[in-house]
Amino acid sequence: MTARLFQFAIRLALGAALALAAAFVLVRQPVGVVLAVLWTAFWVAGQQRGWRWASGLGLLLFVGLLTFGAVVHAKSSLLLAAMGLVLAAWDVQRYAVWLRPVRIRAEHNLVRAHFVRLGAALAVGLGVGGLASTLRTDIGFGWLLLLVLVTVAGMGWLFDALRRNTTT
Amino acid sequence: MRRMVLFSVLVYALLLVGLATLNGALLALLLPLVIYIGVGLLYAPPQPRLEATRTISPDRTIPGEPVSVTLRITNRGRALEEVLIADETPSVMEVFEGDAVVLTTLAMGDTLEVQYRMRGPRGHYQFAPVRVIARDRLGLFERQARVDAPGQLMVLPALARLRKLDIRPRRTRVYSGQVPARRGGPGVEFFGVREYQPGDSSRWINARVSARHAHALYVNEFEQERTADVHLVLDARARSDVRWPGGSLFDHSITAAATLADVMLQQGNRVGLLVYGGTFLKWVVPGYGKLQRERILRALAGAEQGHHLVFEDLEHLPTNYFAPGSQLAVISPLLPGDLRMLVTLQRTGFPLLVVTPDPVGLEEQKLDRRREVALAARIAGLERRLLISNLRRTGARVFEWDVSTPFHLAAAVLARAPIGKPGT
Hints:
The complex is a heterodimer. In chain A, 83% of the residues lie in helices and 1% in strands. By secondary structure, chain A is mostly helical. Chains A and B meet through helix 3, helix 4, strand 1, helix 5 and helix 6 of A and helix 1, helix 2, strand 4, strand 6 and strand 10 of B.
């Protein structure tokens, strides 16, 4: 099962890289395409050589490429799709690592439940992201500042909750 | 923790860059990440509240024999979506059937049974509390707990059966046993002749001797057989050992000690054990019977070697632990400096039986067959032979054991040894 999950993670990563490369092609950014290809090579090498740190770093680098894509005004739907795919790849790869050394009771049910949860989270995330990318509003500096403060405070609360709920 | 750092960096970086550049696409990219974390938080696992019981069957065994472990875990708290239950077996034990680590789902009140079989070397093992990791399905939040499931496993040393072991201590105890007591009385072996006394059985009359004396009858006297005090001294000094991957000479010494204890106790003697070396002395007070056998085997199961300056040689052997005139059985590969103390013991009234597994021959077998090795083995062998010869000259019985032969086969010679003669 874990071998299949690893393969699936690689396919998802390839899909993410393809979406990103397509976004760069559409805005004629060959550098972006090259970077996407390099990223793919790094990810696949990391998976095959079992570098445990590769998936985290890969996600970080990919988000960097997405930021570059957004800055050069690449198509936001493609960027969002790439984000969803890379997040799924990262999640599935990590899940396969988690499952590898253990015997699993009712393996099929457990894996299916994981994919249902992941699918739901990504569907909602991409839906809301897609909706957000179509909205256009003009806001003043004061509102912007308030928004920044609220967002930063919200994120802080979220990460604090994450820290409190993780006892490692 | 690393996941949290990663997500913090990603989310805050996207947020700040998005707001700084007023780029809505970047803020939109942020949303799948935030929702992913939010879903994890929504289903964050509760602190696990589990109860566990452990059954080990059998809980005492010998090295290499399989042992079944059954762990029953009941969830007394809220349901756990994904829970990893890891029974941390002692590192030297090999799990060869089933798994000690299981990933599953545990609803409230559910009971999980984890079964596995393992085997391992001699030792006394205590099981650590079971490690439990509960996670949400996305693996973002984790709760860890330890659940007590006490259990202990005793892997006793392998025991070879010896039918008989002949010993001749200076003193015996008052109870009847199998050790010749050097005094006349009821028994089997002929001891001497004395004048007839009223109450003596007519079957004991020695006709030949009586015929030579006109006015007296003489009867045969037999040697009384009694129990004796026997003290086993096991050499646990690391510097006297030979080790190789997967074994050591010390393990053979332990087998010998267990076998000697078993046969001595079977013969009705009072047996004690001193493990000399390691970081401290291990002393099993002398006793009789099956309970004492169990005590000695348990002590041997947990016996470990070590370095300690005090125990570098046998000079600090606590002789006041031993009953005067009792039989000493020393199980040691022997070091050159040991001779003085052993001679002193033999001369101060402790008849010695020295069982010495051969370290030179064993080490030679384990090393490459080179000329230098052969020469070194020859020199070491000569030194050892000289040591043993000097020891035998004092009257000690020395049994040299080539460990490639099982102890019970090699030690059969100990049962046949001529009584009262030095050395074997």
